[in-house]
Amino acid sequence: MLSCIPMKNLGSVLLAMLLMPAACIQVPELTAPPDVPDCSAVGEEPIGIQWVSPSEGAQVGSITRLQVQLTGATPEAVDLLVDGTAVATLKEPFVLDWETQSVSEGPHAFVVRARRCGQESLSPQRQVVVDRTKPSLIAQTPQDGAQWVSVRQTVRAELSEPVMADSVNDGTVRLLAGQSEVAAEVLLSQDGRVLTLQPLEPLPVSEVMRVVFDASVTDAAGNPVAMPSQGWSWRVPAFLPLGDTHTPRPRVDSFSFQVERGGTPLVAWLGTGTSGVQVERWNGGAWQSLGTPLQGSAGDPAAQECVLQLDAVDTPHVAWIQPKLDGSVEVQVRRWSGSIWTALGPPVTPLLSQASVTDVRMRVESGGVPVIAFKEWNTSDHQVSVFRLQAGVWRSNAPTGPRSAPSLGLLFLELNQGGDQILGWSQTDFFFPGWATAVSRQVGGSEFGYGFASRQAESPMMAMTVGGDGRIVVASPVQLNGSQSVLVQEQLMNTGGWERVAGPYDRVPGRTDASATALKFDAQGRLVMLLEEPESEASSFVQSLFVQRWNTDHWEPIGGALSANPGATPVSHSQFGTDKDGRIFLAWTEAEELDATQSRLHVYRPNQ
Questions:
Q1: What is the pLDDT of residue 9?
Q2: The domain containing residue 84 runs over which residues?
Q3: Which of the listed residues 130, 149, 170 is the one where a domain comes to its end?
Q4: CB of 230 within 8 A of CB of 69?
Q5: Which residues contact 41 (CB under 8 A, 6 or more apart)?
Q6: Cα dihedral 323, 327, 330, 331 sign
């Protein structure tokens, strides 16, 4: 007989379990059994696979988007096969961004495989080209790091492979001057490999230009253009070299530079090993000699110093110091006739006996009459002598310059509109230490002194010019904060006093000594000054040039620091000229970087 007690106990247990707190019930999670495909209809409902992307023959980069559409039964798995090898799995909705690093660059066969119930369905094969290489620059104009680029330069880049035309425009390929954008027309060649940027305006000078490609400029595979690690940039200076380094000889000892009113430069120069004074004119593409070299009589020693000057109709005149075999010296003067050099009077001999001569200067009056000046001295005396050609004979004015001065420095000669001769020079004296700057005017046989523009300077540096209105302007040295600056002053007519054009001026901050090497009024009556000054205190021996133009109440720079070999070698003997449009042309000698004893002549034109 069965007992009923166990059944009662079981009921009690069940009741107790129902009354227990819910928080204490531990119910294990139940996992639904995997979907088991219904394979009863296998073979009756095939899976269809159609490509969405990439297209046949497409080029793909490091990552490519694969997308297919499936029809029919639901597959168990969908795989990507590349060249017959499964490389990835696609999940619904069957879109995959696949990294191509596992396969080599080049063409590959892509197939998508769907599996269900032990059967496979394959997509049509799609040929895809894997290209992970970015387009790169294989040629460019200007070259990266180019120093002498024209303001009218067309910018051109040749690429290693084509880029997409719809990715190239003036928003994705930009031309920058510093941080400012320069408007340019952007063109792409038909083969997609050559990019051209044509600036709509001349490029700004004294700027570093660069080209920037947006990442959206890509090849057909989506690879952006790879720029050089250092970028692509170049300089657009205010002045460009006029021809190659201008001297066929290893050394230039003396030169003189002038510019015709139409903008054609001329230069006269002497060099070691040359026979006489070489005079050349720029013909637009090269330097062309004017006649044969100028020299003294047969057997004379080599010429010393030369000066070139143009008259009112741009006829060249040349004077030079010619030593003689007996130890004497003379000054010879020639005029260019258009085909040959003709002598102007007999040679000029110094006024002092057994004199030495330096600093020959020349100007030509409006009527074509030349005037020359030079310093001469012997063991007991020294002076500045001035000669004017009259009726084929050189006639001297009364000697000028204080004979009692211990020494004379630089010498300048100018003519005013009335033909008066304006002389400026630096000198020492017995009563004040240092150097003084003096100016006088000679009219006929009389001399009128304008006193000292400066005194007690630490150097003989000076520059002088005379304006069309007769203004005399002098640049002289002045000490300021432990270094030499330039003081520009103007002669006040009828008062004999000097007035500052501006305060002491230099171009480079810090303790660097500035020197004014030339002053001129351009055709518009604007005062232009040429400075020599180190670019930094750390390289004080490297002198660079700075062109400044007076603008009402301040000096404005025309370009930046100028040097034929930037930061390498010092410039010297700098000169400049202007044409009728006020354009500035420069000339200077510069020691060769590899041999400081060899100086070459450099001539520069405006970058316009």
A1: 45
A2: 49-130
A3: 130
A4: no
A5: 73
A6: positive
With left for phi above 0 and alpha for psi between -120 and 50, is residue 35 left, alpha or beta? beta
Domain count, the chain: 2
* Cα–Cα distance for residue pair 80/62, rounded to 1 Å: 16
- The one-letter amino acid code at 590 reads E
CB 500 within 8 A of CB 476: no
Quick one: tokens of 118? 């032990």
Per-residue tokens: 343: 């002598």
pLDDT value for 480: 87
Q: Which residues pair with 372 in a beta bridge?
A: 362, 387
Q: Tokens in use for 3? A: 């007992």
Give me the pLDDT at residue 447, please: 82
Q: What is the pTM of this model?
A: 0.79
The pLDDT of residue 244 is: 64
The pLDDT value recorded for residue 381 is 85
CA angle at 456 for the pair 476 and 453, rounded to the nearest 5°: 40
Rounded distance between C-alpha atoms, residue 477 and residue 457, angstroms: 6
Q: How are the residues of the chain apportioned to helix, strand and coil, as percentages rounded to the nearest 5?
A: 5, 50, 45
Q: Mean pLDDT, 10 residues at a time, over the chain (608 residues)?
A: 41 41 47 59 75 92 92 90 92 91 93 91 93 93 92 94 94 93 95 95 91 93 90 90 60 91 95 83 92 90 94 96 94 96 96 93 94 91 90 82 72 91 88 89 82 89 91 93 92 79 88 92 94 81 86 89 64 89 90 70 88
Do 71 and 105 fall into the same domain? yes
CB 499 within 8 A of CB 445: no
Tokens of 445: 């046989």
16 CB-near residues (< 8 Å, 6+ apart): none
CA distance 389 to 396: 9
- Phi, psi dihedrals of residue 102, rounded to the nearest 5°: -80, -5
Please state, in angstroms and rounded to a whole number, the distance separating the CA atoms of residues 132 and 100: 8
Q: Which of 183, 214, 236 is the last residue of a domain?
A: 236
Beta-strand (E) ranges in 246-381? Answer: 252-259, 265-271, 278-282, 287-289, 304-310, 316-323, 329-336, 341-343, 356-364, 370-377
At position 580, the amino acid (one-letter code) is: K
The CA distance from 105 to 122, in Å, is 24
Residue 102 has which token pair? 């596992």
How many whole angstroms from its chain centre is CA 269? 28
Strand partners, 575: 587
Does 79 share its domain with 96?
A: yes
End-to-end, the C-alpha distance of the chain in Å comes to: 126
